[in-house]
Structures are given as structure tokens and as C-alpha cells.
Amino acid sequence: MAKHEYAFYPGCSSQKGASASNYLTSVESMCKTLDVKLTEIPDWNCCGASIGYAEAGELPRHVMNARNFALSEKNLPGQEIVATCAACWLGARETRERLTHSDTLMADTREALKEAGLTINEMPNIRHMVEVLIEDLGFDEMKKHVVRPLEGVKIAGYVGCQTNRPFGVDGESFENPQYLDRMVEMVGAESIPEYEQKVTCCGGALAFSEPEKAQAQIKDIVESAYDHGAEMIVTPCPLCQANVEIYQGQINKTYGTKFNIPVMYYSQLMVVAYGGSAKDAALNGQMIKARRLEEIAAKPVKR
Amino acid sequence: MSANTALAEKYRNNFLKEIEEQVEMGDWVKMCMQCGVCSGSCPTNFQSAWEHPPQELFMMIRAGKRDEVLTSTSMWNCTSCYNCIVRCPRKLPITHIMHGIAEYAHRIGLAPKMQATRFFSGLFWKNATKTGRVNELKLSMGLYFKNGFGSGVKEGMKMKDVAIGLVLAKRLNPLELFGGHKCKDQKGIQAMLKKAYEIERSRKAAKMAG
Measured between alpha carbons, how far is B120 from B144 in angstroms, rounded to an integer? Predict the structure, then answer.
């Protein structure tokens, strides 16, 4: 039996061929090393994300998340739900909070769920993967598996919004969370605790609808990473990763910059440090290739 | 009588009450003490300035400026970064109030039709709830082709390098256009959502009648 078991809510962007499929591949490799067993919630659905608000209303939005809770309870009773996506985690946690605080909303939700033949009896705990790593495993356990430290690589820890606000990771401040920097150090790389754009918004869904606004924010995030001498940026959020990575070319055209900095997931850094191959870490999933990590991943492992 | 006229009539001279009863988290509006921390913490207000940042909207609501608030493009500038929520000294759930006012304006047909994020928001929700899971390719195409085929091709060309890069990285699958990821129990999801909308509508109507 695995050391830790959870009901897994991967979210839409993690699916095969979707924008964060590289995140999922690296999380799977990372969990294998750490003996964490993730069992996908059967037939899970979209959380609605924040941007669905124009049509989602209140109850329909919570019902979408509640369906996942009900499916988890039915198929994986007693397990906490773990999400890797910041928006999935936030959406699910918000629904949990609202349903817990309002008997009316809970009753209405149960009535709607009945239509899908489902119900909720117990409210599940909703965890983000970084919470599992930090709180359930801890930094010592995470560090134990490092066999190929990312020595000399300077990495800007970009936490972004939704893994940080409004819930965040327990014990961390909203303005200057430290955990991502500690994770960077844990894999043997050099962190930049004074990176002042670490909780700046990447523009979220406005990157699609009003790109000029989002790209102005992304420019600040990338520029500051360069100013601090970073070779790459790391993040725990799929939309942060995509927005900060894929629009660098367009930003270069608009602003005359020469941005070309890789944007990684914490799980990819960990897989390489744990001795995994470039394939295990899904390094081929980067639009801006992380050459330095590819080189390290090709080196033999010190055991 | 349109939904908007009926609501305007019912809540005549009491726009604050309308917001409290009809908008998600609207009953928090009266708690605002006009400190302006929300406006100063908002990333999109910083770079391009909202027409009316949150604290101003709150005062306008209390001043009964119904049309100015509900037809404003302001709320649609929200990136859902939640900075205003964590910094508000009175703990107002500002992000949710902004989404709530926007949703209400959209629901009663007053939201600016051509506002890009209003369009994208509706598109996203329809995309996600149609099969239970987001189809990223159809979502992007739906956005670029919103003003017809000609401008869609132009918008698409602007995004060409991003799209090619993502396809090469196996993070965008052209085959998603013909199906793609979906939930098995789509029927159950539709029935569940239909019920949820019914309940929500009847609760709002009861408040208006009460």
C-alpha cells in the first residue's frame, strides 16, 4: 500500500493534449518516487473556474463542484480530494466553504445533485498538491529523494494568485509566501526570495479576452525574473505557467524585449532532481525549452 | 415588461436593496468604508484604470446610480486575482461582489454587449458545461471567430506562433475540434444544472416578491 492515498481531481487543462498535460506527466513521476497514490475521481467535471461567472450564477457553479465531491465520496470514500490546478482547488474549496456555511445552499445543492443520481453526506477536504507535499510529506521527506541536485541553477519562484489567495497555503503570507522558494532550495537550486513579482497576477482569463492587459502584467513578471538573474521561472499554477510562457513572443513584438525564459512546474524540477529523465519530467512539453534542465536530466545519477 | 424594467420598478429609489437581494454577496456592499485599498490593489486598475474601481462602484450603488453601475465595463476587468479580498480591512468578498454585479448586469441584459471578457465568460461556461469538461481548442476558436469568419482568420493568424508552439509541445490537439474530452454522464450533468438554475431563479423571484 502507498504511504499516502488521495482522490485525484486533475482538471481539464491536465488532460492528454491539453495545455497543462506536461504538469500531469511530471506529477505522476513525482508521486511515484514519493509513494503517493492518486486515484482519479471517476467522471469528474470542470470546476467552472472563476471566469465562468457571467452565466454560472451561484448554485449552478457550486453544483458542478459538488458533483465531484459526491463522485469522490461514492467511489473513493474517506479520501481527501487533491487538485493540481490552482483554479480547480480554489473553485472546489470555495464551494466547500459556501455549502458548509449555508444550510439553504446545501439543501438546494442536494436537490440538484439528485437529478444526477448523486448525493453528499460528508464534506471532503480539498487539498492542493503543494499542500500535500509540504504538510503531509514535509521538506525533509521531499529532500530525501534528491539524487541529482539542480546545482547552480537560479530560479524565480512565481506563486501567482489562486494558490495564494484567498485561501493560500497555511502559515504563508499573502504578500510574500516562502514555500516555493524553499522548494527551489530543496531541489538544490538557488532561490530568489526577493523576487518582487512572485504574487503578481498573470492576467488570468484576460490573457484570452483582453490580451494587451494581461501581457502588460506578464511583462513585469518576466522582466523582474531577468533582473534578478533567473534562468527560469517556476510556478504551481497551470494558467500562470501557460500565460507567462506562451505569450513571451508576442510581448517581445509589442515591447521590443528579448524574453525567452523557460517557465516550469515545481513537479518538473523535482522529477529531474529525483533522477528522472527529461521524458519523466515532460520537458518536451515546454514551448520555451529548458535547455539547462535537459542537460541535467541527461547526466548520470549520483546514488 | 422586460426583466430589467420590472426590477427597476420594484426597487425604485433603492438600488442598494436591489443589489443586496439580487446579487451574489451583494449584502456586503454597505460594509465598505471607502478606504480604496481594493482599487489600489487591483492589477488591471493599475495599468489601464477601470472606469469605476470597486470602492467607487460601492458608493455609486449607495447613491442609487443604477444605470451607470450596471452598464459599466468596469466589473468585467476583474482578473480574479483575489488581491482585493485579502487586503480589504472590512473583509468584503470584493472579487465575488464584482463577479456578482457583472453576472446580474448580464442576466438582466444591461451588460455591454461587446465587452470581450463578458463574451469570453459566457463562452467558457457554455464550453465547460456542454460536455462537463473544457475543450480548449473550441474555446479559443469561439473567441477568435466571435466577430465572424474574416476577423476570426485575422485573430487566428495573430495567434499562429502560439498555437504552433503548443501543438508541437503536445499541449494543443487539433483533433479536439472533432470531439475531444468529455464526461460520461452528460445527461446527468444537464439535468442537475437545469434543476440548479430553476432553484436559483425561484429564490431570486421570491426575494423580489417578498
Answer: 10
